Task: structure prediction
Amino acid sequence: MGHSLQGASHRAEDSPCQDSHAVRVLGDSPDCSLIACVADGAGSAKYGGEGSAIVCEGIVENASAYFDSFGNFDALQAEEVESWCDDARETIKVDAELRGCEAREFATTLCAAIVSPTRSYFFQIGDGAMILGCNGIYGVVFWPQSGEYANSTNFLTAKHYRDHLQFLTVTSQIADLALFTDGIERLALLFDSQTPHPPFFEPLFHTLRSTDNPHELSDDFSKFLQSDSITARSDDDKTLVLASHVSAEIGRHV
Result:
């Protein structure tokens, strides 16, 4: 499982966490696949938290339906992913109409990964990032997106969102996977070189690989994200999803 935790700034304002995540394992070992999403509702959007939850749930449900229909993700194309995003946008539009507001009040980013035995797919709009690792070497799938103005980004609810939706297919083996929202960026990324910060990830993945029951780490993982060393660097909401040995043993995740 992953964790989405309220940041100190939101606690001070007595406002809810606007981050969301969703993780699901599809199929049976050894041919199973992993779908993972993280999303960050815009701080300026009244229902940003609801928007992030709708998007994560919608992507996972659509990916699951695709898997049920085809049995794998071998032929997945960007156009299919765009249709999943359109479906989430339509759900947001309906909710916005019920609340008497515009869809932009549900503005949210999205980072999503589908890892299967033969190939993996990644798509993203907005900030946050996804990290891939193999044999101690880490790379960023897409660098966090900046918006038109300072301290802004791109959102799935925007009219021309497809202009900013990034999609990548990977056929090489992936040992470690991390997805996180922008509340983790300054801890997990080196902005001068646009690379991951290995000292942040290596202890986490080492711990994950060393346990027989990853779910036992849940409480410790939550405490880590709320520790003084983490909150001192960022007072924003934080979401982090980790998975290890994802190409060979899909499902070992916290």
Summary: The two ends are 4 Å apart (CA to CA). The chain has one domain: 3-244. Residues 248-254 have pLDDT under 50 and may be disordered. Residues 68 and 140 are 30 Å apart (CA to CA).
